[in-house]
Request: fold
Amino acid sequence: MLFVTLFEIVGYLISIVVTLVIVQFVLSLLISFNVVNTHNAVVAALWQAVNSLLDPVLRPIRRLMPHTGALDLSPMVLIIGLTVIQIILKNLAVASAM
Reply:
């Protein structure tokens, strides 16, 4: 029962982080194609908040990965890693329920 609860809590947190990664990706595209401007206070605040939340998680991944130029693959590695953790916890929860 403990693993089921842990799985649900971690699953919820993982979905929040994945949503933040997607928001960061979309916002970076909008900024780079000049659809929105960081001189807008709302856009600047949102951009700063998302980066402040994700940078502590993405920075160690970026240090470990080889430099790929302008293409940053660390968000994809983060999502894959979190999915693997979620699968492991799900299997532990199923095994403990039996």
User: Anything to note?
Assistant: The CA atoms of residues 21 and 75 lie 6 Å apart. DSSP finds three helices and no strands in the chain. The mean pLDDT is 91.
